[in-house]
């Protein structure tokens, strides 16, 4: 007698307007995914975000005091971030080159 494999998937059905399907299909294509994979991933990610927002963070009184101390401490510069934020944006660099090339 053939054994029937237990199905681990649970079908989910939705009715969506054509415009929503078009947007989902376009995004899925850009990601190189199927519609099903794209929607599943997006739904799971959204559900995880909701669960993380609802999860309380628990810590000891000592840990909480250390957390508050870290928040209250003066900010310290991170050299890599300072350098990154001082760098011109790509569109600013291109504008400077275009202006120099046209004699502006």
Structure described in brief:
With 104 residues, this protein is mainly α. The protein has helices at residues 18-31, 35-54, 61-72, 79-86, 90-101. It has 5 helices and no strands.
Q: Notable features of this structure?
A:
104 residues; mainly alpha
Task: Explain what the structure shows.
- By secondary structure, the chain is an all-alpha fold.
- The chain has a domain at 18-58 and 77-101.
- 63% of the residues lie in helices and 0% in strands.
- The chain has five helices and no strands.
Low-confidence stretches: none
Instruction: Please tally the helical runs, counting DSSP H or I stretches of 4 or more residues.
Output: 5
Give the total of beta strands: 0
* Average pLDDT for all residues: 88
Indicate the topology.
Elements: H1 18-31, H2 35-54, H3 61-72, H4 79-86, H5 90-101
Helix pairs in contact: 1-2
């Amino acid at each position: 007698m053939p054994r029937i494999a237990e199905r681990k998937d649970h079908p989910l059905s939705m009715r969506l307007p054509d415009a929503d399907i078009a947007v989902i299909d376009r995004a899925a294509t850009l990601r190189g995914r199927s519609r099903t994979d794209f929607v599943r991933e997006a739904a799971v990610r959204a559900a995880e975000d909701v669960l993380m927002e609802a999860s309380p963070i628990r810590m000891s009184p000592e840990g909480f005091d250390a957390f508050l101390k870290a928040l209250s401490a003066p900010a310290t510069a991170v050299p890599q971030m300072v350098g990154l934020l001082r760098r011109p944006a790509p569109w600013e660099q291109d504008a400077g080159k275009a202006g120099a090339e046209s004699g502006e």
